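hi! just following up on the protien thing from before. the input was this:
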Amino acid sequence: MYLSKKSNFFNYLYLLVVISSMIAYFLYKIQPDFGLIWDTADFLILALDFTGKGIGYVDLIRPPVLPFLTSIIFRLGYVSENVIFALDGILFIFGVIGLYLLLNLRFNPLRSFIACILYSTFPIMLFYVSIGLSDIPSVSFSIWAIYFTILAVKKNNKFFYLAFPFAIISFLTRYPMALIIYPLFFYIFINRNNLENKKDLILGILLSFVLIIPFISWSFLKFGNPLYPFIPSFSVTVGVSSEELFYYNPDIFYFTKILPRLLGNVSIAITIITIFGLFIYNIRSKFWLKLNFKRFYNYIYSKSNNYKIRFLILILLILFFIISFGNIFYMFSEVIFLVISILFYELLKNSKYPNLNMDLLIISWFMSFFIFHSVYVIKDQRYLITMAPAVSYFLILGLNELSNKFKLVFKNKNITFSIISVFIVIGLLVSTTNTLIDLNEISAQETVTDDIILASNWFKNYDPDYKTKIIYSDYYPHSTWYLRTDINKMPILKDNKEIYARLKELNLSNEDFKVYEKELSQNNADYYFCINAKINLTSYKVIKRFGDVYIYEKI
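and the predicted 3d structure came back as:
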C-alpha cells in the first residue's frame, strides 16, 4: 500500500511537470509577439547593469532577484529578452512543483494534482506566465517559503534554514511579498510549543539577513536610505491622488468584484457546486439545528470565564476589522486580522478539527495580500496572482469535503472525487485551450512595442552615430533596450509640473506643449520618440512615424 501511494505521488508529480511545462513553453513561444511590458524592459536593463555593461538609464528601485538571475545568462554571452521570458516560465513550473508538495501535506496526490492544475490554468496565471514580470516568480518563492515553514514545524526545525531565505528571496523578487511574514509568524506562533530547537528558528532568521544585508547596504550607499527602494511599494498614496493616474483605483472591493477573472468558468462552477452541495447536505442532516442560537449560547455559557472573554474579544475584533477596513492604515488591518486568526485558533485548537492550523495558515496567507492590495490605491488585476495558491487550496478543500459527504462507493472505495476530477480535467482542457487560442490571436495584433522595435531599427540606419546624440523617449525603458544606448526619460508634464506616475490619458494643453518644448530645448535634445499623437512642437519636426510612435528631430 505504501509503495502504491508513493508511486501515485510521483506519477502525478511527473504529469504535473509535463502539463505546466507545456503551458510555459507555449506562452514562451508567443510572448515575443506581445512585446515587452514596461516593467520587463526595466528588469532587462537592470540585468545588463548587473553584468557591468550598463548603458546609462537604469531604474535602481526595481527588485533585484529576477534581473540578477537574468544577468547570469547575459554573462554567458546570450543577451535577449527571451532569457527573462524563459526564466519566468521556469519559475512558474518551480512554483507549481512547490504547491504540489505543499498540498500533499494536507491532501492525497490526486487532490493535490487537481488543485495544481487549477492553479496553473487560472486565466490570471495564463495571462502572465513567461511575460517577464516578477509576480509569478515571487509567488513561486513564497510557496516554497510556506512549505518549508510547515516542514520546519512538523518534521525538522532545520527546515527554517530554507524557509526564511526563500521568504527573503520572494521579497527581493517583488517587494510587497514582504507580507508573507504574517502567515509565517502566525503558523510559527501557534505551534511555538512544538518547536524542539528554537535555535534553528533564530539561525534561519539570521541566515535570511545574510541575503538581504548586502542589498540594504547597497541601498544606503546609493540613496542614503537603506529602505529607499521599498518605500514606493508600501506607500498607500502615490504622490498625486488623481483619478487620471494609471491604475489608480481606490475601490476596496475591486478584487472581490474581479475574483471570477482569477477563478475562470471551471473554478466558478466548482465553487457553486461545492456551496450548493454542502448546503443540501447540511439541510438533509439537520445540521442547522445543531447551530441554533440557544445551543450555541449554552455551549459558550458552559466554558470558563477566560474562554468567554477571549470569545468576546474575538467578536469585537471581527466587527472592528469589518467596519474599519479601508478606513485605517492597511498595516493595522493586517495586525488585527493576525490577532483574529490567533484568537480563533486558540478557541478551537482543542476541537476535533485535525487540520485547523494549516487551513488557518492558508487563510492568513490569502488575507495578508487581499488586505494590502484592496487598500493600496494602485490596482492591477495581476496582483490577484498573490492570492492564487490560496484560492486553489480552498477550491480543492471544498471539493474534498463535498466528496466526503456524498459518497459513491465502488469496491469499498469512495470514487466521488475521482469522477468529479474527470469532469474538472475535461473542463480545464476546453477552457485552457480556448484561452491559449485567444492569447495567440491577441499576440498577432500590433502593439506599441512592435512600433518601437520598427522605429528603433529604422533609426539605427537613419543616424549611425545615434549613440553620441541626446535622445528622449516617452517609452524610455523600451527605447533604451532596443537601441542599447542611454535614453533620457521624458517626464510626464502637465499643468506646468512633473507627475511621478503614468496617466491613463495624456490630454495636454497648448501650455503643456510649451513645457515639453522647454524640457527638450533646455537639455539640447537631438531626437524625441513620442507616443502622443496630439503633441505640437515648434522646434522639432516629425521625421518618421511607425504606428503610435513619432520620431521628432531638432530643426
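Residues 236-241 have pLDDT under 50 and may be disordered.
The chain has 23 helices and nine strands.
cheers
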